[in-house]
Every structure is written in structure tokens, then in C-alpha cells.
Amino acid sequence: MPEKSEKIESIESTWTVLPEKPAGPFLLEVTPEKLVVPSTGNLEVKIRNPTKETCKVYVYFDSFFWLMKKENEPFREGSGDSSSMCSYTTYLSPAGSCIFTIGYHNAEYVKYISDSEGHIMCNDSCGYPERCPEHQGYVLKVLPSERIYYNHERPEGFLVVKYGVKGAKNSGKAMREMDLFLKDETEEYKKYREQFEEIRKEQARRARWGHVLVNRDCITERKFRDLDGTIRDYGSRWKEETEWERDILPDLKQLDGFSDEQILKIRKERKEKIEEKHRKEEEEAKKRAEEYRKEQEEKRKKEEENERIKKRRKRR
């Protein structure tokens, strides 16, 4: 479940920025009250609005074990950098509800191409519904072993539901955070849990090297920690990520016995080498540019001299 207070932990940890504090009591009904997912099959979750106001509802989900689906609705798979994260926004009128499913232990389901309103982007008049991808959908597959940017302590994951009253300004959002639970620990899930533990170890190694994960308002993003401890985006709006940001040892396990200070020293040395290499490349580029400029200047002078000679000959 997402953290409840803002914090920046040690160099071995990931950086967490928490969502805003909930405003007021949470009045929507979420059933079941405890989200227990079967080892095979799926869990159906329902959100209902029992109030007299139309509410704008925001749903966030992330899990190492499972995926979430809502039929014919525009879920945003992979929001941020976590490939299993889903988010969904809808309006619920009084007594209105929405239903979605959590599970898909085989890590895949059929997704239909839909527009911003959730309607399938085709109609029966297309003439070939059996071959139309809008009708047949496509398989969304996100294997747990590929969820390398899933950044939460529990592999089961969480569900967050927020809402605000439609049209109300500065009203804030009431919020409920719910952990997911596995009903039965099968051999399949034991394997998933082992994969999760190995990925978490590798994430910790990458964080010590400066490649950190940030959980911001339920969404996970990759960030870069520079030598001075500054955490920022890779590259910038105008510039691609640099060689220094991409630089990482091929096997970070070799640093498991090193202290944070030793790793920082190694990173600093590698950065200096990269900067020295680029400095030499820039000097060589300037040298070549200057040589080219001189060649062009010499060529221009010769052409001008030849032109003067031709003119003198014509006057004779």
C-alpha cells in the first residue's frame, strides 16, 4: 500500500512522495471489504456511490502478482514506469456503480481498443468483425518477471480509490487504500514470490548506484540520483539522458560487499572518466572544425587569386 507520509530514506532505499491527505470521510461503497484474490480465477470488485452527489472517481491499482481489467473501458496500463499499474477515472451518479476484476494469474487478458469514452472503436457495419482487432481485441501480457519497476513492499499490491464531488472546487478527495491478499499460496505463486524478492534485491542495488524508483501519488517513476544526492528526471525536456545517467555496471552484485561511500567513490571516478572522454572529444571536434575552417579559407583565397589572374589576362 502507498506510504502515508513523505520521506526520503537512505541511499539503499527508494524515494517516496506520498499522495495528498484525504479530505473528509470516504462515503463510497467498495465491495468486498477485504480484497482476497483466488490463486486461479479472478476477484470482482464493485464501487458504488450511495450519496446524493455525482462523484468523480479515481481508481489506482498495482500488483506484482495480478492485473486489473474493466471491460471496454479505457484503463491506462503502464501509467508511469510500472508495467502492471492501472488507473481509471469515471463519474458515478447517485446509486451508480462500476465493476472491474483483479486477477489474471496467467498475466494476460484480452483488451479491446476503445476511445476516450470507453466505446469500442468500431461498429458492426465494418463487415469483418471476426478479423477486426477492434472487435476481437488483443492480448495484453505483462509477466511478473518483467515487472522490474514494481516498487511496493508486498507483491500482492494494492487498490486506491479516490473521489471528489463533481463541480465542487477545492473540495479535495476522499480516499481509501486497500491491500490485496492471496487466498492460497500455490507453487505458481511461490515462484512469483521468489521472482519478486530477486527483483527487489536488484532494485536496491540499482538504487545504491543512483537509479532510484519514486512512488508519487500511486504511480511509480524512474529517477536519477546524482553524486550530490539530488534526485531528478533522466535528461530533460530538451535533452536526452546522458551517458553518465545511463552508466551502470553490468553486474551490480559485485558491489554487495561495498559500503555506500565506496560505491559513491566508484561512481565519481566513472563520472570523471566520462567527462574527460567528452572533454577530449569536444577538443578534437573543435580542432577538426578549426582545420576545416582554415582549409576553406585557404581554398577561398586560392579561388580569389585565380579569379584575379583571369581578369588580368582578359585585360591584356
Number of helical regions? 4
Strand content: 25-35%
Q: Could you describe the largest sheet, including whether it forms a barrel?
A: 5 strands, mixed
How many distinct domains?
A: 2
- Which class of the largest domain in CATH terms? Mainly Beta
Note the overall shape: elongated
Average pLDDT, all residues: 81
Helical fraction equals 25-40%
Number of strands: 16
Question: Looking across the biggest beta sheet, what order are the strands in?
Answer: 1-2-14-15-16
| Rg calculated over all Cα atoms | 29 Å
Q: Poorly predicted ranges (pLDDT <50, ≥5 residues)?
A: 2-19, 113-120
> In the CATH hierarchy, what is the architecture of the largest domain at level 2?
Sandwich
Listing every helix as H and every strand as E from the N terminus to the C terminus, the arrangement reads: EEEEEEEEEEHEEEHEEEHH
The SS-based structural class is alpha+beta
